[in-house]
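C-ALPHA CELLS:
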Amino acid sequence: MRNVILATGIAVLLALSCFGAEAAQVLIVDQTESLMESMQVEVLARVLLASGLFSIRAVTEIPDRPHPSGLFDYVVVIPPSGGWIWVCIPGLPQVFSAEFQQSLSVLEGAIEQIFIGERQAANPADDLYSFIWSAYFLSVGILEGAQ
C-alpha cells in the first residue's frame, strides 16, 4: 500500500510540474486518527510542497483565531472519519480567476489521488459543510480572498 501511495504522489508531482504560478498558501487541518491516513496526509503535504505551487502549514485542531503565518488561500479540513475532505476557499470557485480555479483543481486532484478514492475533495460549490467552514475561516481571519 505504501508503494501505491508513493507512486501516486510521484504521478501527481509530475502532473503539477507543468504549471508555473506563485505558491498558494494552504492550511491543512489534520484530524485523522489512523496511521494510514496520517501517512496519506504526509504524502499530500510533501507532494504539494515539491510542486512549488503550494506553501503548506498544518495544524491538528480547528483554529479559532488568525494563524501566526498570516492568511491562507485554501484551508483543507481532513475530519477524523468519513468520505470527504473539505477544501475551503473564500467563495464559490466560479467567481475566481482561471489560475485560481486551476490551482483548486490541482489541489483537489492531488487529494483524491493520494486518498485513492477513500475520500473525496469537496469545495463550497460541492458541499454545504465546506461552505460553512469557509465562512467560519473567513470570519476568524484565516482565509483571505483570492487575488
User: Anything to note?
Assistant: The mean pLDDT is 86. The two ends are 38 Å apart (CA to CA).
